[in-house]
Write a structure and sequence with these properties.
Blueprint: H1 2-14, E1 29-31, E2 36-37, E3 47-52, H2 58-62, H3 64-74, E4 81-85, H4 97-107, E5 113-115, H5 120-125, E6 129-130, E7 132-139, E8 142-149, H6 165-174, E9 189-190
Parallel strand pairs: 3-4, 4-5
Antiparallel strand pairs: 1-2, 1-5, 3-7, 6-9, 7-8
Length: 196
């Protein structure tokens, strides 16, 4: 049992990906409108709210309204939302590209909804759940990771959330401060990884 816990924990450590203060690399992924999107497409952005999410996970679905609200509130302030589906659709067919298109149309997502087809981006970031947020801030050194974790502290009911982590983190950055907290536990479904 102890060996199992050790190797499980080791796997989590090696899959950590970005940490607070790391420089995030750009990506170029297929959007639901058929175009490819990268962060370089937003030259005036002050940062990005990158959210790993999907169609099938009840946690991701529960947060859809809040993802939309974040986009509407913060994109005009220079922090657009970019949603990325990291799941392998052979494991979860509901997360297929065609179903992503349907979901984005049904919900009128005001942000790009991208497919991490080769699953390289979520691994680089270190995302483990859907939803999992990485708040990036444009600084002299590039796009710097300034917050990682959950959107808020109540996945069941937005009205009952008492801590709004992403909103507070952006406000701190806009005020010239560092977010506190800058890391919270992402609550959601595990990412479905393609079997090799």
């Amino acid at each position: 049992m102890l060996l199992f816990l050790f190797f499980s924990f080791s796997g989590i450590v090696f899959a950590q990906g970005y940490e607070i203060g790391d420089k995030a690399a750009d990506f170029n992924l297929l959007n639901v409108d058929g175009t490819y999107v990268s962060m370089a497409d937003y030259p005036d952005a002050k940062g990005f709210i990158v959210i790993f999410t999907c169609n099938h996970c009840p946690y991701s679905v529960a947060y859809e309204g809040r993802k939309i609200a974040l986009a509407k509130q913060f994109a005009p302030q220079g922090y657009p939302v970019i949603a990325i589906n990291p799941n392998d659709s052979t494991i979860v067919p509901l997360d297929s590209y065609s179903n992503m298109i349907k979901r984005a149309d049904e919900k009128s997502f005001p942000y790009p909804y991208l497919l991490d087809a080769d699953q390289s981006v979520f691994q680089r970031y270190g995302a483990t759940r859907t939803p999992h947020v990485f708040l990036l801030n444009k600084e002299a050194g590039g796009l710097i990771v300034r917050y990682i974790g959950a959107i808020d502290n109540n996945y069941e009911n937005a009205d009952e959330a008492t801590e709004h982590y992403v909103e507070d983190a952006i406000r701190a950055l806009k005020d010239g401060d560092l977010p506190n907290p800058d890391f919270t536990k992402a609550i959601g479904c595990t990412i479905k990884i393609k079997k090799s």
